[in-house]
Amino acid sequence: MADHDPQQGEQDLEKKIEETRQRFNSELLQDSTDKYDSRDVERLEQDDALVEAYLTWRQYVVDDALKMIDDSLLWRKELGVNDITESTIPRWMFESGAVYLHGYDKEGNKLFWFKVKLHFKDAKTAVDKKKYIAFWLERYAKKEPGMPLTVVFDMTDSGIGNIDMDFVKYVINCFKVYYPKFLSKMIIVDMPWIMNAAWKIVKSWLGPEAIAKLKFASKAEVQTFIGPEYLPSHLGGTDPFKYTYPPLPDDDFQTPLCENGPIVSEDDVESKEGEMESRETLESSFNSEIVAKPKKGWLW
């Protein structure tokens, strides 16, 4: 049996990347200059890692990678992903704390939290919710290019009223189609038994590569994946973090990563403690605003 030749493998990959680009230009771009956002086309032409990500996610089958690229770039233009900023998202979505980035799993992957009990179906805000998810994913991709995310669905105290299957499908497509190689794992924590049927439907939407990344965990089992230092107290952890807005949490992405997350100096710890005090003060004022505000349906 012949030994694997790394150099040959690199050459084969380069050929696949070049073939993908050539076919993208000849078969997908054709004579239409406004089919996609020109910024996305330029990035695809220049960023080998991006093309490789599509190829890897589609098992190096160029036809399948091209289909994924087409779907992804059409979605990005339709939603205006490149122009989504903090100011284009309704403020109350940030204030709700239903979605945010914070902490790391035991493999050093950033955690993307979904607080399911805060999510309610509302067709009127569906587009803004999709942009909101894209905002967080774009923000992370720019800060940590090439680094995967671990999605955590915290289902504590959630029920049937918090389920919006269309939106669940959208979130899955973000990782299955729109952001290749972005998902490390998807952890569903403390799922009520009454939602078993819904999650069977969800699993039917996932390809085999995504199903392998789906993990169901009780409150006791979640520490298999996430250390207590990045788990809230209601999940048996010791993390004192409390989400508030503004400012956006986790603007201080830190590297290098150790097994249990970022390496933090003593000065950083003291700085964090000061930030926590100011965040708690902000939290009390914004919570009073949210309570006084008419209830707006979130996602799920």
From TrEMBL:
Residues 264-285 are annotated as: Disordered. It holds the Pfam family CRAL_TRIO. One of its GO terms (cellular component) is endomembrane system. It comes from the Eukaryota. Residues 101-243 form the CRAL-TRIO domain. CDD domains: SEC14 (cd00170). Residues 271-282 have a biased composition (Basic and acidic residues). InterPro entries: CRAL-TRIO_dom, CRAL-TRIO_dom_sf, CRAL/TRIO_N_dom_sf, ER-organelle_contact. This is Motile sperm domain containing 2. The lineage of its organism: Eukaryota, Metazoa, Chordata, Craniata, Vertebrata.
